[in-house]
Amino acid sequence: MDFLNFEDFSIPPNQYKSRPLWFWNSSDHALSAITKEGIRNIMFYSAVDSGYAGFGILPEWLDDYMSEAYLDLYACALETAKNLHLKMCLYDENGFPSGSAGGLLAQQYPDDTIKRLDKEEKNISGPCRLELLIRTDNDTKYTGAVLLETDTNEIFDISDQFQPENSRQYSASFSVPAGNWKVMIFFIKKDGYDRVDYLDKKAVEHLLAITHEVYYQNFQKYFGAVIDSAFYDEPMLYQAKGRTWTERFNELFQERYGYSPIPLYPALWYDIGEKTAFARNALFGFRTELFSEHYIKTMNDWCNTHGIVLMGHMDQEENINPVTTCGDLMKIFQYQDIPGIDEISFYDRAIKAYKIVSSAAYNWDKPLVMTEVYGAMGEEIGIDILYKDIMNQFVRGINYVVPHAVWYNSEKGVTFPPELSFRNVKYASALPAYNDFTARVSMLLRGGKHVADIGILYPIDSLKAETRFDCGDPYSGNKPDGVDYMDLGHLLFTELHRDYTFLHPEVILQKCTVENGRLLLHNTINSEAYRILIIPGGSTVSFAVMQKIKEFYESGGNVIFTAMLPSHSSEEGHSAGVQEIIEHILRHRTKNTGYSAFLPETEHFQLNSLLKSLAIVPDVDIAQSGALSGGSFGYIHKIKFGRNIYYFANSSDQEVTCSVTFRGKIINPCFWDPHTGTRTDVAYSYGEDKGTPITRVIVKLPGVRSIFLVENGY
């Protein structure tokens, strides 16, 4: 079916409309406050009066979670949804964050809760004979030990020197060479926090047995029809004192990489010289892989086996460094059907992170990108903010809207306003038009091929290399010196009006090839071609990635470094090679190579003139500059069913009128208005720039307004 049909756009199908989280709340957390009559009433009027297309039921720390009484109420909601032709999303927790099954996991599987990595250490001078005795408890397990020479950073694995005397006591007796040494002994400790051990596949399977499997056993007939998805909420690594770990880490690491990780452990706390960047990338990288594979992929596989898809989001996505919060804000979504992001507390809080999550979808060929939006923004945010916030997300790649939220009890116990329902006089009359609007935009932006000339290397190797335990607040993470990728991306998109895609280093290596000055991302649907590659500031980069970038440059591709030139390799022993390649790209230029440059962070403002100086006709060239009050002007370009679709959004408070030039000859363009469901003619002209056909259009948008330009729009 061609979803570019204008009739569908004008009167959008329910499948594209927003589907809010529905808080089942009561002031005293009593399940008895929820009634079947109340459920039917709220669902009916939310569908008929508000235009919502379904719900994700979020029990807000209710007593008797997953009891027979709770499941009976849930059955009522599912049957009501079936009768109203609504879709339901299976929210996986009693409150949030996800991972405890409302406390049931700790009750039924107490050993499956979150673990942390602890250490004990002692400074000694050698040579000497050292005798040590360590004691553990039921919640603590010895996992290894090293000797670290603090002057030379020489490391010896002494794990096998510690022998068990009984289940809670280990002893060691060994000779220490001459030098200044630090003995470091490592333990895996049950943290006491009741969330699941996200890094342990068996623990996650137990969690699913308590929640998802119980829903399936009771409501199998609704799966795939009424229940079409599942939702997880804000899992994190920053708990457990920021040292989330798992008991089988060493064993699993050895299986995958063929060597023990124990000699690398000191880098989690200290600089160990040349091996620091490599060690931290290896350890933090593997932790992310376990989080992604054992938590996300295990849930995603369960969902797919049971006929539904998985969505959800991390916590603190706006952090510049995600290593302590989720590990890697792109890779974490590799195995997830619908990557997601959260926008809470205030307007545009996560605006610099939207492109990271949507880029993850582009990297791994995911057609949908979800947002949970408006949570805890307060009752007074106003209707304009509903549009401003979601338009800013739409142009940055979001296309699936989950508002936060509708409440069961709107008068008592609304802990995170606003309440966006038919009962709220501030928003009720605006919701039908809002839901039609979000449906129209979502319909045109879901799937298809994203188009951008610029790729930005996601600097996760630098972020891992500059992270260590017990340094700063793991909730907010640290900002390493010279790391500018978020600010750079925001400048590029918001002020220079140039779209881009963050490229994960693994994707560059595994899915990209070089051809005639272009870096090609090979996906079944979302194939992209980049003519400019930006290497944002940071200390560390993959040597293998730099080899690919060198190939790109020598084939005619354009490479721009910013803020800080990497000097370390994330692979062991290749830092000199990284430095040589960067020197080559910046100093060696022939008629066959592309352009290269280095922009210090203080000279970001020169990026616009630098981009304009390149012999490249931009995919979209917007003649608009200067800051706008209350918002910004942006666009996204997609190709669906062979037709070019451009979405322009003005989230500011002032009118924008600008000339827009499109690369290529756009055939019979037409404006489609997602606010009204109408279409109008476009005045356009054809021309040529640097031998390339172009199309010129004037785009005029009032404040808080958006428009589509659709090729063959009639």
Task: Describe what this molecule looks like in 3D.
The chain has 714 residues and is an alpha/beta fold. It is 27% helix and 28% strand. It contains 17 helices and 34 strands. The strands form seven sheets. An eight-stranded parallel β-sheet has the order 11-9-3-2-1-14-13-12. α2 packs parallel to α3 (68-84) and α5 (201-210) runs parallel beside α8 (276-305). The longest helix has 30 residues, at 276-305. The model has no long low-confidence stretch (mean pLDDT 96).
Amino- and carboxy-terminal Cα gap: 17 Å
Within the largest sheet, what's the order of strands? 11-9-3-2-1-14-13-12
Strand residues, percent = 25-35%
The proportion of residues forming helix, as a percent range, comes to 25-40%
What best-fitting shape do the alpha-carbon axes yield? flat
- Rg computed from alpha carbons, rounded to a whole number of angstroms: 27 Å
Q: What does the largest sheet look like?
A: 8 strands, parallel
Structural class: alpha/beta
In DSSP terms (H or I, runs of 4 or more residues), the helix count works out at: 17
The count of strands amounts to: 34
State the low-pLDDT regions, or none.
Answer: none
- What value does the average pLDDT take? 96
